[in-house]
Design goal:
mainly alpha, 6 helices
Length: 136
């Protein structure tokens, strides 16, 4: 086995780093500014926390196969985190938007959630990244 297959934690760590870099590049393209701190925020795409759990679940699937307890734990955690990113934080966005309108201010952050299509598309990216790293 290769280094990554023997050290599964490195795969989500690399996914984390790559996601922060991609998000930073996208922020630079959209705003014209380099804003490193915004690359670490939980809003916007690609999703850092989703990248970490999807790549970990993928690595667990390759190492322990999909019928293993290890993969079951990893995929359950992944589903919960992505569900939260899409649904629970959508509801939080609705509340923040309503409160900000009532207060006539931008006191609460509104950019909290991810579209299902975004989460799905980026999940495929992290499955591919984890698969490539695992098989290097």
């Amino acid at each position: 086995m290769n280094f990554f297959a023997e050290n599964l934690l490195i795969i989500p760590l690399i996914s984390f780093i790559v996601t922060v870099i991609i998000k930073g590049i996208l922020i630079k393209i959209n705003t014209g500014k380099i804003e490193i701190s915004k690359s670490l925020w939980s809003w916007g795409m690609p999703s850092v926390h989703s990248a970490v759990v999807v790549s970990l679940a993928t690595a667990m699937a390759w190492k322990h196969w999909i019928l293993s307890d290890e993969f079951a734990l990893a995929i359950t955690m992944t589903v919960i985190i992505i569900y939260d990113a899409i649904n629970v934080r959508y509801e939080a966005w609705l509340h923040a938007t309503a409160i900000n309108k009532i207060l006539w201010t931008e006191k609460f952050k509104e950019l909290l959630w991810h579209l299902p299509s975004e989460a799905f598309a980026w999940s495929i990216v992290w499955v591919v990244v984890a698969t490539v790293l695992y098989h290097l």
